[in-house]
Amino acid sequence: MKIALATPHFPTSITDGLNKVEQLATDAAKQGAVVVCFPETFIPGYPLADVEVPKASQEELAEALNKVCEIAKANNIAIIIPMDWYEDDKFYNLAQVASANGEVLGYQTKNQLDPSEDTTWQPGTERRLFEVGELKFGITICHEGFRYPESVRWAAREGAHVVFHPYLSGSDLKGNQITEWCNPNSPYYEKAMMMRALENTIYFASVGYAMKYQESTSAIIAPDGKCLAYQAYGQEGVIVVDIDLGKATGLLGKRFKPELYR
Amino acid sequence: MKIALATPHFPTSITDGLNKVEQLATDAAKQGAVVVCFPETFIPGYPLADVEVPKASQEELAEALNKVCEIAKANNIAIIIPMDWYEDDKFYNLAQVASANGEVLGYQTKNQLDPSEDTTWQPGTERRLFEVGELKFGITICHEGFRYPESVRWAAREGAHVVFHPYLSGSDLKGNQITEWCNPNSPYYEKAMMMRALENTIYFASVGYAMKYQESTSAIIAPDGKCLAYQAYGQEGVIVVDIDLGKATGLLGKRFKPELYR
């Protein structure tokens, strides 16, 4: 079963973002992927300090989600589209999941915000598992997946074969350029991706933006911690990887004893 | 406040192990450390497939612990001594803690065994926090600390400044030699050490054996994930590091929301 990780440049607008979704989702579908994941709050774009991202209204966000559903249906591919979302007087950082039929399957909120995000979004409180055909997956968003292994453990214990991890790290304006996967001098992010897979014996699919000064890249990690493929640093594109659901046994996730930590 | 990580060669006997404890604890005390930690089941030695380690009786183990307490008292240093231990018809992989007065403060069992260890030990069921003067610490043993971040989270949320992590990885007979900290081609262990510190904003002190083919080394990681010091690969010795308890805020550990994962 093939899954895809889309690594777009930072969108200049919602329209630009949707164009990139269409382009990369079409590419992923042509390569046979059943699902493609985009990076954190790709609609309208993560509110970086060094980029002007106008806040979108809920009407614009809902309209964008409709458009993503149309793209999913037209290409017969499920799409994980991280975005801003207003609901019940809350403002969430979440990821919507559109089925290959163009239906919204639901969303996963970011529940453990980075301290720097406390004044931007409200944290969600629920976790859920998604199913696309035979594939069961969870979603953990950026900081949550990097610093809270429990968010991945939860999905592994619910039977997830993969946890998708939309994130943003880096900048287009300043920073260091990375050229080697998991280099000891790089920030910790790629090392955390390895851990999330091998702590649970499941696949971990981490999806970031293509930026000039990325602090890590998009990658799919096997249940034994091996990096199966990663996106070239700084380059927009999609990687499609054939995963073996039989290898995602969840062995170490299932051996976790929650009663020991209460 | 100074803490010490002792990296001995594999002991040839309990007596040899106790000689190494005396030598390295004395060295650590001379350098001003308040506590020194030894690697996993150092008494009588981890039951590797490629080494003949005779099983010790509970009488021998208790006698060895008494000797460690004498060494602690004589050098005015607390000692974390991982060992085999029989109690209540169970056979545990645990770490005893001797105070600088030579009293046994208690022990931490290994509660999440590696699948390969299921027929060797029985898993423990309790976690506890230890105090040596101002220093609060937890202990997580090998696999538990490498694959179960929850074991470190627990201690961080209880107020630990440091989690000590006695382990064994590698062999004296076969394998690859590592020369660079956190090299991307090395096994994942050193990368996991980084994560355990920065997931919780506490220090993480990982303590292994000096072996010809180590798969990782002993290291002390700062609350921001930076490796402060590590033992030279393959060389017996002790590293003493001055840590700043004020930096071990436990910030990200305390922001963890356990209610989200039940």
UniProtKB/TrEMBL annotation, chains A, B:
Q: Which UniProt keywords apply?
A: Hydrolase
Q: Which InterPro entries match?
A: Aliph_Amidase/BUP (IPR050345), C-N_Hydrolase (IPR003010), C-N_Hydrolase_sf (IPR036526), Nitrilase/CN_hydratase_CS (IPR000132)
What sequence ranges are listed for the domain CN hydrolase? 1-245
Gene3D superfamilies linked to this entry? Carbon-nitrogen hydrolase (3.60.110.10)
Q: Which positions are catalytic residues?
A: 40
Highest taxon listed in the record's lineage: Bacteria
BP GO terms, sorted: putrescine biosynthetic process from arginine
Pfam families per UniProt: CN_hydrolase
Q: Does the keyword Acetylation apply?
A: no
Any GO MF annotation of the entry: nitrilase activity
Name of the protein this chain belongs to: Carbon-nitrogen hydrolase family protein
